[in-house]
Amino acid sequence: MTDTASGSVARGGKRPRKGLRMKRIFTKPGVHPYDEIQWERRDVVMTNWRDGSINFEQRGVEFPEFWSVNAANIVTTKYFRGAVGTPQREWSLKQLVDRVVGVYTRTGVEHGYFASDEDAEIFDHELKHALVHQVFAFNSPVWFNVGTASPQQVSACFILSVDDQMESILEWYKEEGVIFKGGSGSGVNLSRIRSSKELLSSGGTASGPVSFMRGADASAGTIKSGGATRRAAKMVVLDVDHPDIEEFIETKAREEDKVRALRDAGFDMDLGGKDIVSVQYQNANNSVRVSDEFMKAVEKGEEFGLRARLTGEIIEKVDAQDLFRKMAKAAWECADPGLQYDDTINDWHTTPETGRITASNPCSEYVHLDNSSCNLASINLLKFLKDDNSFNVADFVKLTELIITAMDISITFADFPTEKIGETTRAYRQLGIGYANLGALLMATGHAYDSDGGRAVAGAITSLMTGVSYRRSAELAGVVGAYDGYARNAEPHKRVMRKHAAANDNLRAVGTMDAKIHAEASRQWSECLKVGEKNGYRNAQASLLAPTGTIGLMMDCDTTGIEPDLALVKFKKLVGGGSMQIVNQTIPRALKQLGYQQEQIEAIVEYISEHGHVVDAPGLRKEHYEVFDCAMGERAIAPMGHVRMMAAAQPFLSGAISKTVNLPESATIDDIEQVYMEGWKLGLKALAVYRDNCKVGQPLSVGNGAKKDEPKAAEPEVKVIEVNRPTRRRMPNQRPSMTTRFTVGGAKGYMTASSYPDDGLGEVFLKMSKQGSTLAGVMDAFSVAISIGLQYGVPLETYMSKFVNMRFEPAGMTDDPDIRMATSVMDYIFRRLALDHLPYDERAALGIFSAAERAAQQRGEDPAALQEAVDREALAQSAPIEEKPKEQPVKELTLESHQRFTADAPLCMTCGTKMRPAGSCYVCEGCGSTSGCS
């Protein structure tokens, strides 16, 4: 795409211009990229999830016709600048892209990046074409800030530092607060702080890093609750040889025990509940920095020394296997801590003469110097899949060159939250190019995610991306100079480049697709080493794999980052409101690639649409099932499959990978130990795990009592005593009743609940299908069983404990403002019955509240005020429905309604939609909010 020109065109007629010659990829000379697109006007209206009121409205926005409703909604609400309703408000994607690209192009011209004005125009047009066609996207801060009156912050990832001094600790608090205020996240290693087992100069005992974590956590929680549209994201790291490492490991697990105790005592411990703020250390991801020395000690069953922070002397020895077990046990209980493999990270470090890598950003993909930052951009891989299912290697190479050029330009004009971060970033110019839609690309081409072929494709693409990036970085160094810290780090930087190239040489082709990509990657690495030897490099880091949460939705990606597909069916938003269920478009393409005929494809797709999985799909051969394996559902990818995919990409990344390895609820501590050990052996830089339902704040949390892998206590001697047999209390012929129409995950039904005239629920009837159908018969039988149980005196609370949180299809969004989400019809029914028939105190113990009660909680009212709200609501509901009709807002179907299992994820604090995993974070498909880097 480009060549380096030494002096082809005069600048202002005074002297030759040294810069890049640009060649076109997607655009045509004399034709603006916008003129080749069919544009259309749309209305974006977002409703409040609590009461259906409109909380955002902008009509007549302009987007390409091929952009989905969801992508347009997210860009309009999150990225358009200017006050809504004023002439200054952006209303077209053209304006947004022009605002951002204009700054990049002008800065590139001013700083001599281009050989001529024509080259600058080509850069401008190609960048605009790629962005409006969703071929790639910059990270969110670029869209928020570039071209506005705000500071031009372009980075999403920050690493801070803290020393063993009170002034430094307080400065850490301040710097984190500034970063959180801007909606970004940061990470820090606290290992320089003396442990609670060491003495101060005054003779007293040090507080230790865990105590200072408490203050930082409170600060993050306060800033988050102060109106930010996304949670404060942070990472806290502690070295494995720190004397306080055991306290650090168990910190969050102990807090989970507190949550259980408070929840059982009747406090509101739901996510967003008013009492959850008493739980500490919840605003950070925790990671232990493990060394090769420690991991080898674990393998050999040896002791490991914990060292004083100031002197480095060993002050305590611990059993390495016991300590490793505690890490796995804590992760089994609460998903923290993750591991960061210190020696691996620093073995791939390009600038060790400047300092070691000690920490990461919140999602663990950016690992570099303290007090630094990284701006990100991600490529939509599916855009390079041609009609013949081959990968467009040439265009991928050219686009990567374009993106790296733009990203480096951004550092030239960028602002930073602190001067220290600004100095380091401008001196080392860390970039983070990555990709999204890998899972969709593999499925569309007939590759199973957990297969040699799938890993070969992923490895080859990652190698090609990074090889081109560093080759372009070396070319930029020849035009505008190497990064300031290159001279002192030239030899280690070139050594790391050779390590990447050697890893590429070790790749073995499995199929035609990856063989062609790998061949080009080999050429790129060869050229990279040659040009780098001559010019040096412009950037200390070039690539990583981020979560791609919001920008993945902006690009209409089916999968995020390195993740596999979440499910085989999705729900597409419609222009007029609502949504429709669609089978992933990659599935028909995959079936065609696997050799199926059109009639077979249609039958299989219809089966998937109905069942949500491929097991027993008509005509589908069992050996092809693995191609359609997903992150969740009937055929979920095994945990080690995720680890192996990360290992396939890691040798070709400057940074690391944001990804959580999900394990089923049945996983044991041994399973987590194995994942952590294999991550180290396979050369990963960082690894986090999440066992389904391990968090108390999530559905189906593990209750009090022994853990699953712990032996049960011996059962006490059983005494048989006689009790009076219960008698049935039949309902009178005339009794008060209430009929509720409901919708769960798109399935409609009716529930009639009858009460005794004096007190108490005594009868429930359910209808969800036509009379005579199997479902109708099952619901009738269930209704009779429940009704008889109630009449024999079974407390409603007993049914609640059995049926609330039960999971099966249909599941998802409901049309009930009091119960936003339901994991099944039974979950909804018994939550509704609890709201209608149980007093507040009993429901509070179960975490079930009405919309009015939740609103009162947010206003800070006490339980007495909440009870009054319940009473007022009950009086209002006692009136006949016809007298006070209430129009319910349109509710969206969710992906999870076609999954046998659902992902543990919080509700979006902005729009109330269940979020979904994106790397180590969560993203809301409704409004684009994320819980970490975007």
TrEMBL record:
Gene3D superfamilies: 3.20.70.20. Residues 732-835 form the TSCPD domain. The keyword Cytoplasm does not apply. This is Vitamin B12-dependent ribonucleotide reductase. Its EC number is 1.17.4.1. It comes from Nonomuraea spiralis. It catalyses: a 2'-deoxyribonucleoside 5'-diphosphate + [thioredoxin]-disulfide + H2O = a ribonucleoside 5'-diphosphate + [thioredoxin]-dithiol. Belongs to the ribonucleoside diphosphate reductase class-2 family. Residues 44-134 form the Ribonucleotide reductase class II vitamin B12-dependent N-terminal domain.
